[in-house]
Amino acid sequence: MSKYRSSGFFGALFLGAFTRLFLTTNQPLRQWLQNRLEISTPLTSWNRVLEGVYLKWSLNSSSYDGDLVHEIPMMINIYHYLIQLFTNRHIIYFFILIDCLNSILVYTISYKIIQFNCIMENFNKTNGKYARLFESKEKKYDFLITEKNFKPIFWSLFAMVCYLFNPLNLACCMSQTTVLIQHFVLLIWLNFLLNGKIFMSYIFLAIHANIAVYSLVLIVPSISFIRQKKIFKRKQIKSEFNLISKHATVFVLLFACVFMFNLYLENFNTRFIDCTYLFILKVRDLVPNMGLFWYFLTEMFDHFITFFIYVFQLNAFLYSIPLTLRLKNEPLVNLLIQIGLLYVFKSYPNIGETGLFTSFLPCVAYLFPLMRNVLVFTCMLIAGMVLAPIMFYLWLGSGGGNANFYFAITLVYSVGQIFLLVDVFYACLKREFIKLNGSNVPLNTDGKPANFTLE
Amino acid sequence: MSLYKSDSDNKTKLFENVIKFGPVLSILGYLSGIVYFSLLPHESLIHGTYISENALLPGLVTSDIYSTDSIFNYYHFLKDAYENNGGKGYNAELIHDIFANKLKIESYTQNFNLSNPFSNSETDGIKSGTNAYAFGRAQRADGTESIVISAPIYLSGKKKKIPNLFGISQLFILADLAKTRPYWAKDLIFVATDMEHVGIQAWINSYFEAHSDSIKGENLRARGGSIQAALNLEFSDINTNKLEIKLEGPNGKLPNLDLFNTIIRICKSMQFECSLESEKSANSDFSYYHNRPPVDHVSGLINTVNMMLKQATGVPSSLNGYFLNYRIEALTISGTRTSFSSKRSQQKQNVLKTTRIVESTLRSVNNLLERFHQSFFFYLLPSSHYYISIGMYMPAFGLIFLPVLIKILSLWFEIFSNKKSTYSDRNDSGLLILDLLKCVIIKFMISFLFGIVLYLGTPFFLMFGKKFQLSPKDALMNCYLAMMANILMTPFIFRSKFSSSGNKTEAENINKLIILLFLTIFVGTISILNFSLSFFVAIFYSPIALLAIQNVQNRLAKFFKLAMMVVACPIVYFSFIYLLNQYFFENKNFFTNPGQFYVSLSEKFYNFVLFSQISQIWTYEMINLFLVPIWSALWITAFN
Predict the structure, then answer these.
(1) For a pLDDT cut of 70, what percent of chain B falls above it?
(2) Cβ within 8 Å of residue A405, ≥6 positions away
(3) Which residues have C-beta within 8 Å of that of residue A300, sequence separation ≥ 6?
(4) How confident is the model at residue A422, as a pLDDT?
(5) Rounded CA gap, A186 and A194, in Å?
(6) If 0-12 CB within 10 Å is exposed, 13-18 middle and 19+ buried, where does residue B343 land?
(7) Predicted pLDDT at B424
(8) Between chains, do B327 and A398 touch, taking CB under 8 Å as contact?
(9) What percent of chain A has pLDDT over 70?
């Protein structure tokens, strides 16, 4: 618990909470943010939740009448109790509370991630895996991270500050989007996973996968992490297949349980399946957002749409297994990259999701000197964030622009995120190469120094 | 080459090239940007305007106005009402009466109030007025679309208000056409507005049920279909022989170029002189019926700069601007008189032609099948027959801003090539963060605090002024200047706080990088919304920002640097532009009389701030919130 006893931790938490409370006094800003499409996507809009609650408890009909509500029944029920507890006027304080809890979770998780990475490198070093690194000519003694040269307290505090004062997260908190609660579930999953409480972590991953179908694939990196942890505790892994199938089965069963629970809450009316899972997968709502789907699907002839939806959705699920195989020695970087990739390729992305995974970047700060395009993706992300509302205004407000203006900016934003993730991946691979092969530049067959490229 | 570095050899080479050729490229880029911009109105680069929307078919209809009798009837009726009884009889009630009882079309009046946005008391300084509006419903159409023809009841003149008698008379003529002719596909809405800029805003806001803090209008009792276009008629005199078109809307918005082209085309077909507002041209001979007049480079450049100056303030040049807020293409047709050959027959001809031009424009718009969407929304006009599109002028802007971008790149490379040294010694990272906190974060917090104080402070400034018995305009100007003096004093007060310990260059480089990035974001963002404003910011702040972050040892050079930074204070810079504008375009020489200039400036400044608050123009707020903090950060950096 000593890690919580730093003045920086309390200072940051207090300042973050104070900023949020201060911003709540600005009513027009909150109103404006609540109507922004980048934040209030069909899956996360608070107004839609209110509609669902009203339909179910005041009109005694199904929440899913009218195809406005896309939250799963479980969450609708939870929100119903929350609204009764806080009343709709004061629900913002609940969101601030959740956001602060999220930031504490970010802190804890970052601490764990850094600690785990340090211990893992130390473990591999003592096992002699990095022998060639120490034989190489150009030496760098602190290349391997330890808790001394990469202080977990400092960098996890940095991560927490990144979460608390990221304008994207502030905007999400002020607009009361339910993405915060999705973050909360996701972070609890990560926390349990890192603490080794695997069953609990699967429960939360199952809930999150029910809310946003895409996170199903996160089971792959989590199994990889568990495997790595087993190796490093010197436990014998008898059969990899057994391990994978056991964990996958448990997860699928839990997922089914959560699903059945939802079905039970809806009195075994299957209407909600169409409004939640299939709504996400079929991408029915083409209202603009920061993602890649809406523009392609609005521009496309109807008879191609089914095919392209299959392609696009496959794209979201495709990278999980190859990435995990490639990064099996760096399970935590793998986790972060996969969370990020899901957020880029999902059908209704929310800017708060970018805010979440970018706030974990300080955990891998030791990769930054090895990255290539920091300036490029930083500029792209800033341009995307600043210009998105302006291009939206030019398109639909003043009428000087058209849909291409906004689409161009969402494309810049998405490509910026992909660049960021690819760069993290590249730096991670390069670091692994140096660790295993030393820092001597290898030669090509023609005798010239080889280049390090991502292929 | 080392594997520990992120970059391959190619990138290191690029870095060396940027460091080596950066200064030359910057100077070259900046100068070529200015040269390219001034060459834009040249014959070889310019394009002639053309009608892009085929449906408009300008000037193809036969006019339905045959004689000037009824125009003069209405005109003299209104003139009598204006001249008798001290002008009190000439108001919205009278216009409503003519619409309703003489022309027998649907007509209403609307009352509205204007309250001073900076005064606390509810009743203090409330002015009220009345608008009249009428609907000429299209007989054979379903009423889903409409066109607005508006005319202010009074125009603002140099000394007193001038009645817009001829403009209002034209409304009646057109209303008669709207009632009797079967070809209208769109409803015509006639609006006669009171109190210049206030009345039209009250009417439009009520029409769209938009909320405004200081202007409160009654709800409208009837509406037409979706408004496709709007024309605003301003005629200070019935003896007009030239039309001037005003375009600029609030916050740099411009109407679709097609609408403008239509009017120019129709004027040409009627052989009537027509130009941009205060357009300068070498040959005033208007005998070009088929062809465009030849390009005149110098006057084209002057006209472009004049248009940009008007656009940069964000204040609409006339009442048409407020329609642009709601995606309604609108422009103002105002009549002027250039020669005094007041032959009776000539005058009648001119009146007839003017009215026919307005009618013909309306009938062109009447042909539209869809909203204005072709042609250009972002353009500059060097003359009424030529245009410069966004694709032509944006490169000039990019070249002018190139020095800052190159500097950002080289700063970035510098920081990251030095990174190796701090990276090897990780205990430094904590120190670096501390340095950043001292050097960068505090500096920016103070700078943005100033910005926020200026942004929120106007009512408080005026309150102070009341305490000291100052007139509002003096109070605002003095307080603003006092705040600027505060910013100028900041580095003296916090001198020791800003200087960093440890690895100084790194924190300083990051500080410079952040300032330049802020400037880039600000200028880039504004360039999309209001190109002219960002152009005038970029052309001065791009070299100034580089100068400010340059380390100079020479005492004389340092003095020069600081003096330039004082000039770079936004209010000093913009009042300098105002001074030049007055000198070149309004022929007022303030150079000899600084006292009078200060009086004129503070009055203009107060009116501008008040006007932006009432009409929701964000130029003042943007400059306070972003440009002032950037300048303040630059100033503090320049001092260290």
Answers:
(1) 91
(2) A391, A394, A395
(3) A308
(4) 93
(5) 12
(6) exposed
(7) 43
(8) yes
(9) 98
Q: Check pLDDT > 50 for residue A52.
A: yes
Strand partners, B192: B132, B151
H or E element at residue B108: strand B106-114
- ipTM of the complex as predicted: 0.88
Residue B440 and residue B507 in contact, taking contact as beta carbons nearer than 8 Å = yes
Q: Inter-axis angle of helices A351-358 and A152-164, to 10 degrees?
A: 170
Task: Name which of B6, B327, B517 is nearest A369 (Cβ-Cβ).
Answer: B6
Adjacent-strand bridge partners of B108:
B133
| CA distance from start to end of chain B | 36
pLDDT of residue B639: 79
Provide the 3-class DSSP secondary structure of residue B228.
Answer: strand
Task: Determine the Cα–Cα distance for residues A211 and A185; give it in Å rounded to an integer.
Answer: 10
Identify whether the C-beta of residue B203 lies closer than 8 Å to the C-beta of residue B227.
no
Cβ separation of A398 and B253 shorter than 8 Å? yes
- Tell me the C-alpha distance between A128 and A105, whole Å: 34
Q: What is the pLDDT of residues A208-228, one digit of tens each?
A: 999 999 999 999 999 999 988
Which residues in chain A have Cβ-Cβ distances shorter than 8 Å to B324? 398
Q: Are B148 and B106 in contact (CB under 8 A)?
A: no
Q: Are A379 and A425 in contact (CB under 8 A)?
A: no
For range A183-190, the mean pLDDT: 95
Contacts of A252 (CB under 8 A, 6+ apart): none
Distance from CA of B108 to the nearest CA of A (A): 29
Chain A residues touching B529 at Cβ < 8 A: 390, 394
Instruction: Tell me the mean pLDDT in the region B268-289.
Output: 74
Residues near B469 by Cβ (< 8 Å), separated by ≥ 6? none
User: What are φ and ψ of residue A38, in 5° steps?
Assistant: -70, -25
| The dihedral sign for the CA sequence A44, A45, A51, A57 | positive
Angle A244-A250-A256 (CA atoms, 0-180°, nearest 5)?
A: 130
The two structure tokens encoding residue B198 = 């206030």
Q: Which among B7, B424, B430 is the nearest to A140, CB-wise?
A: B424
Interface mutation vs chain B, best among A162, A376, A398, most B CBs within 10 Å = A398
CA distance B365 to B24: 52
Give CA–CA dist B550/B560, Å, rounded: 12
Token reading at A295: 């523009």
Burial group, residue A235, by CB count within 10 angstroms (0-12, 13-18, 19+) = exposed
- Model pLDDT, residue B7: 58
CB contact B604 to A (< 8 Å): no
- Which residue in B3, B411, B448, B622 has the most chain A C-beta atoms within 10 A of its own C-beta, making it the best mutation to test that interface? B3
pLDDT tens digit string along B149-191? 999 999 987 778 899 999 999 999 999 999 999 999 999 999 9
- Rounded to whole angstroms, how far apart are CA atoms A390 and A397? 9
d(CA A306, CA B465): 68
CA of A401 to nearest chain B CA: how many angstroms apart? 8
Query: Do B58 and B266 touch, CB atoms closer than 8 A?
Result: yes
Q: What is the pLDDT of residues A92-105, one digit of tens each?
A: 999 999 999 999 99
Phi, psi dihedrals of residue B254, rounded to the nearest 5°: -130, 150
Question: Scanning the structure block, which residue is given the tokens 């008669």?
Answer: B176
Angstrom CA distances, A38 to A181, A292, A366, A394, B522, stand at 17, 12, 32, 16, 21
Q: Name the residue among B262, B247, B243, B228 with its Cα closest to residue B355.
A: B243
Is the pLDDT confidence value at B613 over 70? yes
- Report the residue of B6, B8, B375, B428 to disrupt the A interface, i.e. the one with the largest count of A CBs within 10 Å: B6
Q: Is A146's pLDDT higher than 90?
A: no
| Residue A138 to residue B2, Cβ atoms within 8 A | yes
AA identity, residue A35: N
